[in-house]
Amino acid sequence: MSSVETAAEHERILREIESTDTNCIGPTLRSVYDGEEHGVFMGKLDGRIRSHDRDIERMCNHHFQGFVDSITELLKVRGEAHKLKSQVTETDRRLQQDGKGLMASMEELRQCRIQQKNIASTIDKLQMCLPVLEMYSKLQEQMEAKRYYPALRTLGQLEQTCLPRAGQYRFCGLMADSTPLLRSQIRDTAMTHLRDFLESIRKHSDRLGETAIKQAQVQRSLDSSTSVHPRALIGRRIRKELSLGAGTESNGQGGSPLSEQDSGILDVEDDEEEEEEEIPGAQDLVDFSPVYRCLHIYTVLGLRDVFENYYRKQRRKQARLALQPQSNMHETLEGYRCYFNQIVGFFVVEDHILHTTQGLVNTAYVDELWELALSKTIAALRTHSSYCDDPDLVLDLKNLIVLFADTLQGYGFPVSQLFELMLEMRDQYGEILLKKWTQTFRQILDQDNYSPIPVATEQEYKNYTSQFPLQDPELDKAAFPKKLPFSELVPRVYCQIKEFIYACLKYSEDLHLSSTEVDDMIRKSTNLLLTRTLSHCLQNAIKKRNVGLPELVQVIINSSHLEQACTFLEEFISNLTNVPPDTANSTQLYGTSTFKDTRHAAEAEIYTNLNAKIDQFLQLADYDWTTAAQGGGAMTPSDYLTDLITFLQSTFTVLTNLPGKVAQTACMSVCKHISNSLLQLLLDPDVRSISIGALHQVNTDLLQCESFARAGPVTGYQGDTLILAFSDLRQLLDLFTQWDWSSYLADYGRTTSRYVRVNPHTALLLLDKSRSTMFAQFRKTDRDRQKLIDAVIRQLRTLIAQQQA
């Protein structure tokens, strides 16, 4: 079986060798050499070769005669071919010789045709290239003239229309390669101009704001004669520029701004005559063409979003710089003015950009910037205004804020928070005014001589009555020279109060407040002036150590006249505000109570000073508490008491100018103080014993005091009313000098008792002090009196115990 298979395999290999390209029999032969039957295969291969050789030999023998015949025929044809070649060569020679002229003419014609075709093609190509060259030349001219927006439009036409039509030329390729560079150059140049514009308006924002504020100020001056809102005229100017801008932002070449100036701020000549006619508008000072040009360029380049973001980002930074106040802004009004001018200038530019561009800035963006500016401005004003202590500067600042608010309100910005801030500053302004008027009142009080004003002529009298509303018919009829009842303080204080009211009224102007609100504000501020400032100054003047009784008397008289003038102050405020004083919920002036308090303080000071003077006299008292009773003859009053009575008599002569009740109260207070002081002398713990003779001396002094009271040092007391001030001491001394203990103990507690004002405790203290001197004088026969004293002491202690129970 293996031999059969080997034979079949060898047969297959032989067939494959016969039918396969020799380049591919390598693997076949390799399989034979790898086997073990190599010799057998070689034998078969030799047999196959011999078989094919025999086949070839038979085929050659079969076709040999035909091959010989073909060779014979071919030899015959060769001779004829040589003849034909000779004839063709001769014919070609003659044809070549005869066609040389024709060929020269044909060559000339061919060259002419080629030249004609080239000329036509060149003309066609030049006609296609000339627009490219013309457009490129125009582009170069526009670039040299810095007309970048038209250049950008030209570049777009060149790139999109002309170059594709011109074909693939080297110069077209160079032009096409240069277009991105030209675009970048235009974009960078436009951005450079925009940066210059932004830097320029940042530096000149204060000038722009100053011009806009002047416009608003002029418009406010016209408001009294026209009903046009400030925004109307300002807006009219803006709308006019808008309409002009819409027509002039682009030319016939596709929207290029007509203005190609690169400066952001135009030079405006300061002609005084022209300024009188019309103040140049804020937009007249600014050339916005760099913004428009850059916006158009970036729009054409497809980078409008990039431009918008860059512009807004840079303007936000400039806004923060403009909103940063100087550290010393509060020192002068000019600092505030520059601060406001920068802010107004910034928003004037933004408002113009908002209304003259399509979406570069929008309302939301401007409102966001305004909210930021408003919050920072209010915070800065709160901080810096708190350092101010000059009312004139605060008033000027308020007027400047009003103008600032009106200007921005004219551009459509909400400014209600600024007016709320000014209402907050009103309280600060009031405090500063109060401090200023405190110094004024102190100066007036220090300079006053506290004496009635002498008037020698009618003119002087009219001058004083014009300053102060004096209504005294009797004084009007009196002959000259005469005296006004008050001192110089009264008209000066009254005029200063009116000046204060005027100052308050000035602040309330232009705050959009109603008459009732203004009236209420002025009245509240005036009340503070009266109840706090003036009252405090008057109280301090009264409390001064060097103020004597005549000065205190004059203070009372002055306070009375100022109190009477409060009704005229009410009318004065009502005339200023056109609000009747009897309007519901109207604040009333507290001047009446203020001057009453001052008068009462002066009266109390008079009482205090009199009592202090009495204490000085009483310090001179030198009683001999152990002196024996004199056998006969009247005792003389103490010297200190005699001097005290003389002083009181002269003092109450001065008090005659006071109202009756004041003098009466002062006299009663003096008598009570003398009585209490004498009683305290008797009850002084340092005085351990008092003799009957000392009690008689005190009784003599008391009689002198009662005589003074009975003489009526002041009018208005009926009968012995003033003597009642000494009744406590009188009853106590009568009890001891008359030794009437039986009546005292029997009638104690009854209203009809002769000693109803004698307190058991006081009587016991004095009895203890006088008991020791009495025992020293008792003889053995007076033991009954000693027992009586002991019994009295026991009963007094019983009464004291009953009172305490």
Comma- or semicolon-separated keywords:
single chain; 805 residues; mainly alpha; two-stranded antiparallel ribbon; 29 helices; 74% helix; elongated; EXOC6_Sec15_N
What would the average pLDDT be, to the nearest integer? Answer: 79
Number of helices: 29
In this structure, how is the largest beta sheet organized?
2 strands, antiparallel
Structural class: mainly alpha
Biased composition (Polar residues): 248-262
Family: Belongs to the SEC15 family.
Protein name: Exocyst complex component
Biased composition (Acidic residues): 267-279
Description:
This protein has 805 residues and is mainly α. The chain is built from 29 helices and two strands. α19 runs antiparallel to α21. The longest helix is centred in the N-terminal third of the chain and has 61 residues. The protein is elongated and about 215 Å long. It starts with a helix and ends with a helix. About 6% of the residues have low confidence.
Brief rundown of the structure:
With 805 residues, this protein is an all-alpha fold. It is 74% helix and 1% strand.
List the helices and strands and how they pair.
Blueprint: H1 2-19, H2 26-34, H3 38-98, H4 100-144, H5 148-166, H6 170-203, H7 205-222, H8 230-248, H9 272-277, H10 289-300, H11 304-322, H12 333-356, H13 363-385, H14 391-410, H15 416-447, E1 453-455, H16 458-467, H17 473-477, E2 482-484, H18 489-508, H19 515-543, H20 549-564, H21 566-577, H22 591-618, H23 639-654, H24 660-683, H25 692-710, H26 727-737, H27 741-747, H28 760-777, H29 783-804
Antiparallel strand pairs: 1-2
Helix pairs in contact: 4-5, 5-6, 5-10, 6-10, 7-12, 7-14, 8-14, 10-11, 12-13, 12-14, 13-15, 14-15, 15-18, 15-19, 18-19, 19-21, 19-22, 20-22, 22-24, 23-25, 24-25, 25-26, 28-29
